[in-house]
Specification:
It contains eleven helices and eight strands. With 308 residues, it is α/β, with parallel strands linked by helices.
Length: 308
């Protein structure tokens, strides 16, 4: 199989990442099947995907006709056997839990075509932790996207030691076909490339807030002003979702349980999550939405050229 031959993609898990990945594939002429455990979840997903496509059209990244064509190439199902029919590439985006991922891949193994390429969008785990559960580890690898997928057009392609190099090359080529920049990860590394840098930034920001070195707002101002960025680390965390940030941070703590700073950071995040303020998706996190303070005029006073 070559990248140009890929016509049908299965998305396992229609959460935030699954929706964006599926739309990206559909925009570049693939038929996309979304699988999830409940029809109501799939209905909400399709509504959200329509909104993402409409927003891309409003921003002139795509035409309205192209958006409509992509939506017409999508279908949904809660039936595993039906989901797998004729599939050439699978992208799995279920929660970051090894046991759950193993269970899901074992469930799909019985029905997927033998030559299908199997990928996981994991952002914190290694493909070797559950590749064997897929039944064909030689065709299994991580294919990890970043949000928003269309404009943050970088995807990590990370094999495990048993992945067939030919499969890796197909996914590198297919990434380019769907207008993503493939970052080849030469060996398994849990936080990939961008996430390794990103998590370091977020951890530094959280530590500064936990130990009351500066306010959340001033920490964001420092980053935004010096880096000329539209958003700071706490605004970024609101965008990701504070429940997700907490889950990832707890994972780091499990690896180094004696790290007092990590324990303090987890406690800091847990207090925020316990209030139900999860960021943009709930309308409140470190900031209030849809008009967060960091997006208002004057939050950062930028130096402007003097006009003669």
């Amino acid at each position: 199989m070559e990248a140009k031959d890929i016509k049908k993609v299965l998305i396992i898990g229609s959460g935030t990442m699954g929706k964006h990945i599926g739309l990206q594939c559909a925009l570049f002429d693939c038929d996309v099947v979304f699988y999830d455990i409940d029809e109501s979840i799939l209905e909400r997903a399709m509504t959200h995907i329509s909104k993402i496509a409409a927003r891309l059209a409003r921003q002139n990244y795509i035409t309205e006709e192209r958006a409509a064509a992509a939506l017409s190439r999508m279908s949904t199902t809660t039936d595993v056997a039906r989901a797998c029919e004729g599939i050439q590439v699978v992208s799995e985006s279920v929660p970051e839990n090894v046991a759950l991922k193993r269970k899901v891949w074992a469930q799909f193994d019985e029905f997927l075509p033998e030559d299908a390429i199997l990928t996981t969008n994991t952002s914190t785990l290694l493909p070797s932790q559950f590749a064997d559960a897929s039944g064909r580890p030689e065709r299994f690898l991580a294919w990890h996207f970043h949000l928003p997928v269309y404009t943050s057009n970088v995807v990590d392609v990370m094999p495990h030691p048993g992945t067939d190099p030919d499969v890796v090359q197909v996914m590198i080529d297919f990434s380019r076909r769907i207008q993503q920049t493939p970052i080849f990860i030469k060996k398994e590394y849990a936080r990939f490339v961008y996430n390794e840098m990103f998590t370091a930034l977020l951890f530094a920001a959280k530590k500064l807030a936990v130990y009351e070195v500066a306010t959340v707002e001033d920490i964001d101002r420092a980053w935004m002003a010096i880096m000329n960025a539209p958003i700071g680390p706490f605004g970024m965390m609101d965008s990701v979702g504070l429940d997700t940030v907490l889950h990832i941070t707890k994972g780091f703590l499990e690896q180094t349980p004696d790290d007092q700073t990590l324990r303090d950071v987890v406690q800091f995040l847990q207090a925020q999550v316990d209030t139900g303020n999860l960021g943009m998706k709930t309308g409140k996190g470190f900031y209030s939405y849809p008009n967060p303070e960091y997006a208002r005029p004057g939050f950062v006073e930028r130096v402007r050229p003097i006009k003669k």
